[in-house]
């Protein structure tokens, strides 16, 4: 009898734990209030308790997740609703609907917790926060990235661009190399020096190994999104993914701590006190320190509160700029047109273009935008804070909005040659004829990318410098491109190019 009792107790305990885990997994952090009239998948049954979650059982990557959601959204040309447990998610498939949502963006400003919570395991910074914590870090960031500061950033960018051009020049005649490897360090140096007041020397000597380590961290965070069991912290911590993330943090910790300590020393020498009520931060590490004092951060929380800005500062711009070089290498006719524009604007000079000269490079703008059309983030997810209605569709409070950016950017209703690399998509008259929601690579509303001008300026400057000096070629074919889903869409085969010195 004692054995039977023990067995029953053990089974009861296992059942209780299992029910607790299932409840945690299927209960959203922000519950939906109310219902919607937005239609669900045509041929998919919604089950009790789990909703449409059974459809995602075979999902192992972000690409699987995106394609699964698109598949269940077939035959819905504007919006579609589906449930993961009790969480209502509304997929946006139409540019005009997105345009209307932008007007309501104050009602869907928070990032969706069910998607972005994973990044908190790496960095508790501005990009994964919501509410007052986000505002406290975003306001000074917007001040740093104000257009009036772009001239100062331009000088830093020009200096770092010369280093990259020299490094690329050293590859002339030496076969294939990955241009993104070089571009990562260029963009990282600009971010360090412009926003953190840390010397940008990683192109010369890679002492932090930040680009390599954070690529691993981003992969882990995205992988965690699709592994629903890892939503529970202790399960994730014991998993290989959790251990992998901790290993990355262990390697970065001393470097980030040194940046914070140096910042404290510089403030002390200048007689500036971050605890002073009138203290005005002069770089983003100072923002993190001030916010850490206010929120009583631990040292660990402080040093990882600006790591996501470092990632955002180099990763997305590097992916976009490296893709532009790769796509132009695949299309010599477009590369030649971009080069001829450089000759026209720069008159044979190899100096870095001024901001005024950059503004006259319209074809380079078209080329860069066409690249973003193909490689921007697959989508963005927001939480609705207050119910609204668009075209009689009800978007209830607490529901999640998922905007299929990659789908919109390739929708044949808005794009003449959606599957091709075709810079003429961005001729002024064609842009004017499209809904604005057809192309929003920097997201929308208060949570749009704060570094849009910063990123475009640094990308265009290095593209101008490189195209005037070198000609790029590659054996990859555009129609054979395969992408992996990171923060941006990235080439699964890397960014292999060969470079030759231009005769001029």
Give a written overview of the molecule.
The protein is of the alpha+beta class and 504 residues long. It has a domain at 131-376 and 451-501: Cytochrome p450. The protein is built from 19 helices and 12 strands. It has a 5-stranded mixed sheet. It has a 3-stranded antiparallel sheet with strand order 4-12-9. Strands 6-7 form a two-stranded antiparallel ribbon. Helix 5 (131-144) packs antiparallel against helix 11 (284-295), helix 13 packs across helix 16 and helix 13 runs parallel beside helix 19. The longest helix has 30 residues, at 240-269. It is globular. The mean pLDDT is 93.
Strand order within the widest beta sheet: 1-2-8-5-3
Strand content: 5-15%
Q: Could you state the oligomeric state of the chains shown?
A: single chain
Low-confidence stretches: none
Query: Averaging pLDDT over every residue, what do you get?
Result: 93
Largest sheet entry: 5 strands, mixed
Main location: endoplasmic reticulum
GO cellular component, one term: endoplasmic reticulum membrane
Organism: Apolygus lucorum
Family: Belongs to the cytochrome P450 family.
């Amino acid at each position: 009898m004692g054995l039977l009792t023990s067995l029953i107790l053990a089974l009861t305990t296992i059942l209780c734990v299992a029910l607790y885990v299932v409840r945690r997994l299927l209960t959203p952090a922000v519950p939906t209030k109310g219902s919607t009239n937005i239609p669900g998948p045509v041929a998919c049954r919604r089950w009790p308790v789990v909703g449409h979650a059974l459809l995602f059982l075979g999902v192992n990557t972000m690409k699987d997740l995106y394609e699964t959601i698109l598949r269940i959204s077939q035959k819905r040309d504007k919006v579609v609703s589906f449930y993961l447990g009790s969480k209502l998610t509304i997929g946006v498939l139409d540019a005009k609907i997105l345009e209307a949502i932008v007007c309501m963006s104050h009602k869907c400003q928070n990032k969706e917790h069910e998607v972005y919570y994973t990044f908190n395991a790496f960095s508790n910074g501005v990009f994964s926060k919501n509410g007052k914590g986000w505002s406290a870090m975003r306001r000074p960031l917007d001040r740093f990235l104000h257009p009036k500061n772009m001239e100062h950033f331009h000088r830093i960018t020009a200096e770092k661009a010369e280093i990259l051009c020299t490094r690329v020049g050293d590859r002339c005649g030496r076969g294939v190399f990955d241009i993104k490897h070089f571009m990562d360090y260029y963009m990282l140096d600009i971010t360090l020096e412009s926003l953190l007041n840390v010397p940008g020397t990683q192109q010369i000597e890679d002492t932090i190994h930040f680009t390599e380590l954070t690529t691993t961290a981003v992969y882990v965070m995205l992988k965690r999104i699709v592994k629903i069991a890892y939503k529970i912290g202790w399960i994730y911590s014991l998993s290989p993914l959790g251990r992998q993330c901790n290993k990355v943090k262990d390697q970065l910790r001393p470097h980030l701590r040194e940046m914070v300590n140096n910042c404290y020393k510089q403030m002390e020498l200048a007689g500036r006190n971050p605890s002073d009520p009138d203290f005005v931060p002069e770089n983003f590490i100072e923002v993190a320190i001030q916010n850490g004092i206010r929120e009583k951060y631990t040292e660990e929380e402080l040093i990882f509160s600006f790591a996501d800005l470092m990632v955002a500062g180099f990763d997305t711009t590097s992916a976009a700029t490296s893709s532009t070089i790769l796509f132009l290498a695949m299309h010599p006719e477009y590369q030649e047109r971009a080069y001829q524009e450089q000759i026209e604007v720069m008159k044979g000079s190899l100096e870095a273009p001024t901001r005024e000269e950059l503004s006259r490079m319209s074809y380079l703008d078209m080329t860069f935008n066409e690249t973003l059309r193909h490689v921007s983030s697959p989508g963005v997810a927001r939480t609705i804070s207050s119910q609204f209605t668009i075209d009689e569709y009800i978007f209830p409070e607490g529901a999640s909005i998922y905007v299929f950016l990659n789908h919109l950017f390739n929708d044949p209703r808005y794009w003449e040659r959606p599957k091709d690399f075709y810079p003429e998509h961005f001729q002024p008259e064609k842009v004017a004829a499209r809904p604005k929601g057809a192309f929003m690579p920097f997201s929308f509303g208060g949570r749009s990318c704060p570094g849009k001008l910063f990123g475009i300026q640094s990308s265009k400057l290095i593209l101008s410098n490189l195209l005037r000096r070198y000609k790029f070629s590659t054996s990859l074919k555009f129609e054979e491109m395969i992408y992996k889903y990171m923060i941006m869409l990235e080439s699964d085969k890397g960014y292999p190019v060969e470079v030759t010195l231009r005769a001029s």
